[in-house]
Write a structure and sequence with these properties.
ABC transporter transmembrane region fold; transmembrane; ABC transporter ATP-binding protein; about 575 residues; transmembrane helix; membrane; ABC1_TM_sf
Length: about 575
């Protein structure tokens, strides 16, 4: 069951900085008190002048000067307190947002692979960038003004009742009608703001997808189709944004209309009270100023309505992300006490990504330490899934996978994965030096170890031809080197980790024929004494394998060496003749 994802979810983050917030609240109380006192003092100046003129005794300049000096002090202290209030509150909010961003970053590392398989990357990026920024901006702009509005409203109402309670009750109608109008509009507009944020997430997802596949879109001439898909998503965002902003924008003029009508009625009532000497003319002036002090926070809140509602929608999306189920880690796992030898057993393994579509059903296999195992079969039979289960990116739904007679579900994921080296067709390099990219899996690697790994992967010579050698910085996309060179670096990375088990998804697919042979020789060397799983696409890989697992419909239907399987004249021979023989 999902947790509440309202504004209250931000309170724990702000609580961590309660000293700053408490100091800010004290200062804003001072500001609100002084702001409430200012109109009363202004009214006293008007009353004094009116009394002096009416009595015909001349203006009491000493009294007027005293009141003006008092008023200047009130304004000066109020402005200073407000500045310090903003400083403390801003500092607390930004610190709280740092904590929230850190938690979001930590959450990403705890999510299972299944989450990223089902949720578009662009939508996730939108949650952790656009939605986070929306929350930060709304808090920064709104929280101070909301504090100020609540206290200003409270003190203004108190002073109005102190001047004349009947007039104050009349003024309360302004607040009541404003609240009713605001509630009706927010009820209508809030779902639209949620739809707006969701539409923004979808748009970001489409943009990310199109730029990732930009070359393919150009190759197949799908620019118009891509543009139409973007235009549709953009139009959807525009429609939702327009509806949300328009309906929310009605709040401010309607509240202002109510305020002006209320002021008109109160001025007439107040004038009658002045004529009948119930209140002084200065008190009427002060009362009207207090009405504006009531209107000002109401107007500010209505003007902030769009930002606040966008923030509420963003909070829902961010905390829905934080509430996602994390990758479960058993607490009773067995710590690794000895190096893994690499014996792997698949015992009656069952698995499906969705309950209604079974994939692997009753798979059995036994791999001895040091064997090179090729996994072959048509697309979609579960070759990559087998690797995902072995790495515990997913857990089996039935049966077990054991390494050295230990069920991998009883091993800590971090310990398990530290025993694997993995090289995939899709390379991943980050912005940093070539040396840092090779040493990614071994933080304490020395330069000598990095160079040795590069030599084994036959990439050392290439690196030395670069302007800065191992210190050359790859850019964000690592497109300042070729695809084949990227693949060589990822192989060197796997070599450096020196794992007992290797997983290779046809790691030489992006390398030319000459380099392929060199890499095959290098891979044969590093696979000695290690268990190796190779998702095979090339004849050379299949022929050199100690064991071939032939998969069909989620099961291993045949296993053996290349010669043994051909001699059986079964499914492997059909697959080999259709896919590899030529």
């Amino acid at each position: 069951m999902k947790k509440n994802t309202g504004m209250s979810r931000l309170i724990p983050y702000l609580k961590n900085y309660k000293a700053k917030i408490f100091g800010a609240i004290i200062l804003i109380v001072v500001v609100a008190t002084l702001n409430a006192a200012a109109p009363y003092i202004e009214g006293m100046v008007t009353t004094q002048l009116f009394s002096d003129v009416k009595a015909g005794n001349g203006v009491n300049f000493a009294k007027i000067a005293q009141l003006i000096v008092t008023l200047l002090i009130v304004y000066l202290v109020s402005a200073t307190s407000n500045a310090f209030f903003m400083f403390l509150l801003t500092d607390a909010i930004q610190d709280a947002m740092v904590d929230l961003r850190n938690e979001v970053e930590g959450k990403i590392r705890k999510l299972p692979i299944a989450y990223f398989d089902t949720v578009p990357l662009g939508d996730t990026l939108s949650r952790i960038t656009n939605d986070m920024e929306t929350i930060s901006n709304a808090l920064q702009q709104s929280l101070a003004r909301i504090f100020n509005a609540i206290l200003g409203l409270t003190f203004a109402v108190f002073m109005m009742f102190r001047i004349q309670w009947k007039m104050a009750l009349s003024a309360m109608l302004i607040i009541v009608f404003s609240v009713i109008i605001s509630k009706i509009i927010v009820t209508k507009s809030q779902p639209l703001f949620t739809q707006q944020q969701d539409a923004l997430g979808r748009l970001n997802g489409i943009v990310q997808e199109k730029y990732t596949g930009f070359n393919e879109i150009k190759l197949f001439g799908k620019q118009e189709d891509a543009f139409e898909e973007f235009k549709e998503a953009n139009s959807n965002l525009c429609d939702n944004g327009f509806k949300a902003q328009f309906i929310s924008g009605l709040m401010s003029p309607l509240v202002t209309l109510v305020t002006y009508v209320g002021i008109g009625g109160i001025v007439i009532l107040g004038a009658l009270y002045v004529i009948s000497s119930v209140i002084t003319v200065g008190q009427l002036q002060s009362f009207i100023r207090y009405i504006w002090q009531v209107n000002q926070p109401l107007s500010e809140v209505t003007q902030l309505s769009a930002a606040i509602q966008s923030a509420v929608a963003a909070i829902h999306r961010v905390f829905d992300f934080l509430d996602e189920e994390e990758e479960y880690e058993d607490t009773d796992y067995k710590p690794l006490t000895a190096p893994i030898r690499g014996n792997v057993v698949f015992n009656d393994v069952y698995f499906s990504y969705t309950p209604d579509k079974p994939l692997i059903q009753g798979l059995n296999a036994k791999i001895e330490s040091g064997q090179m195992v090729a996994i072959v079969g048509p697309t979609g039979v579960g070759k990559t899934t087998l690797i995902n289960l072995l790495m515990r990116f997913y857990d089996v739904t039935g049966g077990s996978i054991k390494i050295d007679n230990t069920d991998i579900r009883q091993m800590k994921r971090e310990d398990l994965r530290s025993q694997f080296g993995m090289v995939l067709q899709d390379t991943w390099l980050f912005k940093g030096t070539i040396g840092e990219n090779i040493a990614y899996g071994k933080d304490d690697a020395t330069r000598e170890e990095i160079v040795e790994a590069a030599k084994i992967a036959n990439v050392h010579h290439f690196i030395m031809t670069l302007p800065e050698g191992y210190d050359m910085v790859l850019n964000e996309e690592a497109d300042n080197i070729s695809q084949g060179e990227k693949q060589l670096l990822t192989i060197a990375r796997a070599v450096l980790c020196d794992p007992p088990i290797l997983i290779l998804d046809e790691a030489t697919s992006s390398v030319d024929t000459r380099l392929e042979q060199m890499l095959q020789d290098a891979m044969q060397k590093i696979m000695i004494g290690r268990t190796s799983f190779v998702i095979a696409h090339r004849l050379s890989t299949i022929k050199n394998a100690d064991l071939i697992l032939v998969m069909k419909d989620g099961n291993i239907v045949e296993l053996g060496t290349h010669k043994e399987l051909l001699a059986k004249k079964g499914y492997y021979e059909q697959l080999y003749n259709s896919q590899f023989a030529h």
